[in-house]
Amino acid sequence: MKIYVSVFISLLLAACAGEISGVEEVEKDSAMVDVDSLDDVEIPEIDSLIIEKELLDTLAFSKPVEKNLVSPHGVQIEILSRDPNGVSLKKGDVVRIKYQGKLPDGKIFDSSDMIGMPLPYYIGVNMSVKGWDDALPLLQSGDKVRMKVPSSMAYGKKGYGKLIPPNTDLLFEMEILNIVQPEISESGLKFYKTVEKGGALIKEGNTVTLHFYGWLEKTGKLFDASYRSGNPHEFILGNGRSLPCWDEALKKMRLGEKAIIVSPSALAYGEKGIPELVPPNSTLIYSLEVVGVK
């Protein structure tokens, strides 16, 4: 099995490790990887991305600073600057984040610059290592911070292939650019477009090819992902063979676009749910990517 890891986003959504069985191919900014399946993964070396040695002391939090914070599960946070008009973050917010991730030796393993855009991030469903969701509710929009995430809130005893050794604390520099406001429809669907493209909107009768992740809003558990099989889901929009929340969201999207949606249960699996996967009356979070339209 080969996983294309040009940026850490191919790791970033892997905090739900063990909840999917593996991935055949990973998109740059929407990947899910099961840590249990990493033994045969080919991960490129990033040895050329080494920060200057003199920066390491500041990243190691060896000196306490006045504005340090500690999250409930031990993430150390150093606030570098704070916008006096910033708004406190909370579970359920979608934020845009510029970030850089480093190992304790200073090796950069991830950066939003490497994917060419800030990361759209839904707080509360472990889209990243657990340390992110633990720390972000302590922050505000506009914050610039450094964070030291303990191994127990990252990749723990397993590490991540050859890229992140076992029992490794991770260091992040992060800027919270803004909180993204959703488009809320009369049905109650919350729609956040995260990548925009030109072209015609999708309409009923189009055959849509879609990659997706699905999480339970209440617990943050990943319950489904097209990357589990490596095959996107294909269907005709409007023929009744897809979820109502997908139908509604896709009519706002174009080929190549991506979105995060928050779906009330009535637009998803309703009172019945899915046995052992989706409890009755569950609000669902989906990350959608339109990879084909015809």
Description:
By secondary structure, this protein is mainly beta. It has two domains: 135 residues, Roll (Chitinase A, domain 3), CATH 3.10.50.40; 111 residues, Chitinase A, domain 3 (Roll). The protein has five helices and 14 strands. Strands 1, 2, 3, 4, 5, 6 and 7 form a seven-stranded antiparallel sheet that branches. Strands 8, 9, 10, 11, 12, 13 and 14 form a seven-stranded antiparallel sheet that branches. The chain starts with 8 loop residues before the first helix and ends with a strand. The N terminus is likely disordered.
SSE layout and pairing:
Blueprint: H1 9-12, H2 56-59, E1 68-70, E2 76-81, E3 94-102, E4 108-111, H3 112-115, E5 119-122, H4 130-135, E6 144-149, E7 170-180, E8 183-184, E9 190-195, E10 207-216, E11 222-225, E12 233-236, H5 244-250, E13 258-263, E14 284-293
How do you describe this structure in short?
By secondary structure, the chain is mostly beta strands. The chain has helices spanning 9-12, 56-59, 112-115, 130-135, 244-250, and strands spanning 68-70, 76-81, 94-102, 108-111, 119-122, 144-149, 170-180, 183-184, 190-195, 207-216, 222-225, 233-236, 258-263, 284-293.
